[in-house]
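Hi there,

I know you've been waiting on this one. I reran it after we fixed the sequence typo, so this is the corrected version. Both the input and the resulting structure follow.
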Amino acid sequence: MKYYATIYIDEFLEYEILVNLYNGNGLDFTHAFLGLTKGKSPDELDKIDETLRQEYLKNKEWNKIDQKWYETKEPNEFNDDFWGFGTGIANVVESLIGSPSKVFNNNQYVLDSNIDKNCYIIKKLRSPQTFKPSNRCTLELSKEQYESLLVNIKADFEATKEITPNSEKPINEEFTYKLLENNCVTWVIQRLSDIGIEVINTDEWIPDFPILDNLKENLNTIKFLHSIFLKFQNIDDNLQSVKGARAFIAWTRSMLDNNYICYVNQENLEKKIQTLCKKDIENQRYYEGIKKFYNEISQLKSIYNKLDFCLESITKKFNTSIKGDFKLIYFDRKDRQIKLLKADNDYEAIAIQDLDLSQKYNNFSVSKFYPFIFIPKNEMISRMLYHKYDYGNISQEYQKDRNEFYFNVLAGEKSDKYWSSSYHKMTKNLRKIHVS
């Protein structure tokens, strides 16, 4: 069975308030929430709806033709509800400085806060546009990721269950709603990050910037990054664990600012930023925040493209799907050590001094400067893949030199001492980049 988490965005109205906070752009008062489905993706459920609609039309069952799968208010075979985070009170002004927050189920519906009855009343289904593919981002999850996400969401739901429209105090700081700091978007991205989904940055999503516009613009990026991760996860079952998925994110992020692995066209980046904010004294903090954010997005795209290229060079050799284990290698800038993440050490980082190049899969990765080691489950596939790198006994001096060369590249440090065709290709590309 397949499992899915979907980010939905509902642009339900616009308030002309906080204009100055957003440099005169106004505040888009919109909402992000999560939908959880299993067995069928939202796209597949939409197709089922359309098939049923044609049957209802044929049978003249007029009262059913507009029914949608997402209207259900109870979990069913395919749907584990829609969940969202928001202020638990009706006073919008208070939500700017901190108000009691609540996690809602059935969040595909707009609610009214009835102060007199001290309860929430379903007002209407959110706009049909909310459920269109253009306003949603569906991410396939492993069973463990899905179940962990659902457990975490339900824990938040239970923790805020007593919050009502008349509540005066939040449960705690975590459940204090702040429009610019702790809101529907930060809740969505934090819950996904907790289970090992790359959501760009959970710490700082552009200060003083319409945070939901920020999310909507980058839905395709989140989906792209996740699609590359899925390729690794489909090969290595260990990455289906939450620990494995989180380790993968930590590993990819270790490659940020490494010019051998990722590259950002600063000229194009500057053009992008200028469409959002002009660089001047008044906008300095705003400008720097935007630049940092989009620089990170560009780097992550470059890193994942590089990883996709590396993986493709392995998988394209075989007509059948392959299975195996990945060992993830990276340079820890804080400790200034090369470290390794692997499943049989529960993805706890291990500092390594060198790799044994008499092992053909180690020799392959070191020769190719791949930031991972892949060990196929099938020995025949392993032989076919690595037969050119099975050198047998290798001198210690050779091993030392090659390891040093490889580790320098992982650390992003220039190496003039050594040469290889793979390294030459990288440095040649770097020269082109710097000249341009």
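Quick highlight: DSSP finds 13 helices and twelve strands in the chain.

Best,
R. S.
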